[in-house]
Amino acid sequence: MDTHISLSNRAAAKVAALLSDEGNDSLKLRVFVTGGGCSGFSYGFTFDEDVDEDDAVIERDGVAMLVDAMSYQYLAGAEVDYREDLQGAQFVVANPNASATCGCGNSFAI
To answer: 6-109: which CATH topology?
Structure first.
């Protein structure tokens, strides 16, 4: 099983655009998993300047994505993408570890 976490071209381009708007090149996209949500776990996204000792750093097209060690185990093999459709614009996770997801796409079960 592939344990690498990837960032899609679309997601990297959106992060680069958001960082450009923010005017802070030291920010990185942090992706994390928390307990809760309608399926048991939820994905979270934020921008962070600090890289913690246990963070995995995934780089693509000049931007960096951070994943902490606890979250990495739930995201192994996943791809973080950015989608714009009728439901809106958002970062999404294609996670092969999820046995079920909810309609909003932000919650999953293992």
So the answer is: Hypothetical Protein Aq_1857; Chain: A; (2.60.300)
